[in-house]
Amino acid sequence: MSGLARGVLVIEAAARSGSLITARLAGEQGREVMALPGSIHNPLARGCHRLIKDGAALIETVDDVLAALGHPGLAGCGNFAEKSRTDAKNTNGVLDSDAEMLLNALGFEPADIDRLVERTGLAAQSVISKLQLLELEGRVESLAGGRYCRTSPRQAR
């Protein structure tokens, strides 16, 4: 697979996985190796973190992928992550209504994105971005299998 592409983007990889083999082969073939970091608590993110430590391009946005491949960014498309970050909390660090609703919908049992979309009525893209922001704030934790759970008050930053 790595020989057919200009680059390889690894989204999730355990410490020992086939994705890491593909990434290694891509590097040996002169292809761009990119990785998306994940939660430090997620064992399926350890491979990505290792790739980044070893020099893979750290990817956060589509523009990062395009830059790594030598293409100009997407002109005219606003930075969705920055807009979401601004929307999720105000200057006091208080959650906006959608983030608060998402946290309430999460409850105290792990839930996947589909269940949260169903419970909140929010678009999947919005749920994903709000979950990432809540994770950065230490309010939720990403679990294996694409599930999320609240963190205990003592874990929250």
**Poorly predicted ranges:** 80-85, 87-92
Task: Sketch the topology as an H/E string, one letter per element.
Answer: EHEHEHHHEHHEE
Kindly name the structural category.
alpha/beta
| Helix percentage range | 40-55%
Give the beta-strand count: 6
Mean of pLDDT: 82
| Estimated share of beta-strand residues | 5-15%
What count of helical segments does DSSP give?
Answer: 7
Shape: elongated
Strands of the widest sheet, in order across it, are 1-2-3
Task: Give an overview of the whole structure.
The protein is α/β, with parallel strands linked by helices. 42% of the residues lie in helices and 13% in strands. It has a 3-stranded parallel beta sheet, sandwiched between helices. It has a 3-stranded antiparallel beta sheet with strand order 4-6-5. A hairpin with a 3-residue loop joins strand 5 (140-143) and strand 6 (147-150). The longest helix is centred in the C-terminal third of the chain and has 13 residues, at 124-136. It is elongated, with a radius of gyration of 17 Å. The relative contact order is 0.11.
Would you summarize the structure shown here?
This protein has 157 residues and is α/β, with parallel strands linked by helices. It is built from seven helices and six strands; from the N terminus they run βαβαβαααβααββ.
What features would you highlight for this structure?
7 helices, alpha/beta, 3-stranded antiparallel beta sheet
